[in-house]
Write a structure and sequence with these properties.
This protein is an alpha+beta fold. Helix content is 18%, strand content 33%. It has five helices and 24 strands. It has helices at 2-26, 30-40, 90-103, 167-177, 332-339; strands spanning 45-46, 53-55, 59-62, 67-71, 79-83, 86-88, 115-118, 123-131, 135-141, 150-157, 178-180, 207-208, 214-218, 223-227, 232-236, 243-250, 253-258, 261-268, 271-274, 279-282, 344-348, 351-356, 361-366, 369-373. The strands form four sheets. Strands 3, 4, 5, 6, 7, 8, 9, 10 and 11 form a nine-stranded mixed sheet that branches. The protein has an eight-stranded antiparallel barrel with strand order 13-14-15-16-17-18-19-20. It is elongated, with a radius of gyration of 35 Å.
């Protein structure tokens, strides 16, 4: 009887242990998720000023569009959230923009920094990864777009803020948004053994890059649009600072994103036609017939000029100093501070008289204060 009871107790212990393992598999420890993600998304190390890569890590590919990224010159990266299959900025993005404005030097704001967006198929680096109680946050970093690198934070919240999901569930949520680019042998990129594929604003399937190049001018407004690489453009508007943007070509359509706003154009050999009918004429005329190659050499026009530098407007001159005044009761020091020393002085008992012959003015002091003005 004792042995039976012992077996029964042992069996209960076994059942209890199995239940505990099952529960552990359903709700993973944040440290376990952090370790797994860090091993999968090998982090990239940048210079202190974020201007270049010091130690490359894994390259990742975006599977959702709409992620906002700011120039690395911004004191903080912008905030993005992946929710319901979409990436947006929401209140978190607004709050981060406010923080950027508060930290920006020289009276700058979050709008002072160049902006771009990651699109589907774009590749980038991971420079930060943090598992929190309610989410996973990635910090992503671009290759140069034009001559500017960009960065931004992407938050992937958990479905239930009060419960940590399983490791498999977290990996699945992350994979909806971004995955590591595999190497030729099918394994994840190991930057220590071989060079990682170059990230960038890569064209998705069916897109082209050689239908635009050089400079386009909107004559009616004096604005210029300069394509400086296969993904980057500079917009120059008289009286405004230059704006850098990213663009994408699909067939004969071009989408330009500048300062978070997107604009559509129809591409023609010698012009871009905006959705509102505005026509941007290409400087140098139509593209050469062989422009279907990936080269962006502009054989029809001179080399791209340096971005236009607008002259600073001189501040208005300061207003003229107010004319000196004199009033009854002022002291000698106050009068001389306003009018200077008199040309002549005369004492008469308790009175002192200042003569300002150049102004034909006589000031009488009684007891050290102005008592009469002639």
């Amino acid at each position: 009887m004792f042995q039976v009871e012992g077996i029964a107790v042992f069996g209960l212990a076994v059942v209890t242990s199995i239940s505990g393992l099952a529960l552990a598999a359903q709700t993973a420890d944040p440290a376990v998720i952090q370790a797994r993600l860090t091993s999968q998304f090998k982090l990239t190390t940048t210079a202190a000023d974020r201007s270049e890569i010091v130690t490359p890590g894994a390259v990742v590919e975006m599977h959702r569009q709409g992620m906002m990224i700011y120039s690395v010159a911004a004191p903080l990266p912008p905030s993005n959230t992946y929710k319901n299959g979409k990436i947006g900025q929401g209140w978190g993005g607004f709050g981060k923009d406010l923080a950027i404005t508060m930290l920006a030097p020289g009276g700058a704001t979050s709008d002072s920094y160049p902006k771009a967006q990651f699109a589907i198929g774009d590749k980038c680096w991971v420079t930060g990864l943090k598992v929190q109680k309610d989410s996973v946050v990635f910090q992503l970093y671009s290759d140069p777009i034009g001559d500017t690198r960009y960065y931004g934070n992407l938050k992937i919240p958990f479905p239930n803020k009060k419960e940590m999901p399983s490791l498999d569930a977290v990996l699945q949520m992350v994979a909806e948004v971004l995955t590591v680019v595999p190497t030729g042998d099918g394994s994840a990129t190991d930057a220590g053994n071989q060079p990682a594929p170059a990230p960038g604003m890569n064209p998705a399937e069916g897109e082209q890059r050689a239908l635009v190049s050089g400079k386009y001018i909107l004559t009616a407004k004096g604005a210029e649009l300069v394509f400086v690489s296969d993904t980057a453009a500079i917009l120059l508007i008289p009286g405004a600072p230059q704006s850098r943007g990213a663009y994408r070509v699909t067939g004969d359509s071009l989408t330009l994103t500048v300062n978070g706003n997107s604009f559509g154009y129809r591409i023609q050999p010698d012009r871009l036609v905006a959705a509102n009918g505005e026509i941007w004429l290409r400087q140098g005329g139509a593209l050469p017939p062989d422009s279907g190659s990936a080269s962006f050499q502009d054989t029809n026009s001179s080399p791209l000029p340096a971005p236009r530098q607008y002259e600073d407007v001189a501040p208005p001159p300061p207003p003229p100093a107010p004319a000196p005044t004199i009033a009854m009761g002022q002291t000698r020091d106050q009068v001389t501070a306003a009018f200077g020393e008199p040309q002549r002085k005369a004492a008469a008992g308790q009175k002192m008289i200042f003569f300002y012959t150049d102004m034909k003015m006589k000031v009488t002091f009684t007891g050290g204060k102005v008592s009469n003005i002639d």
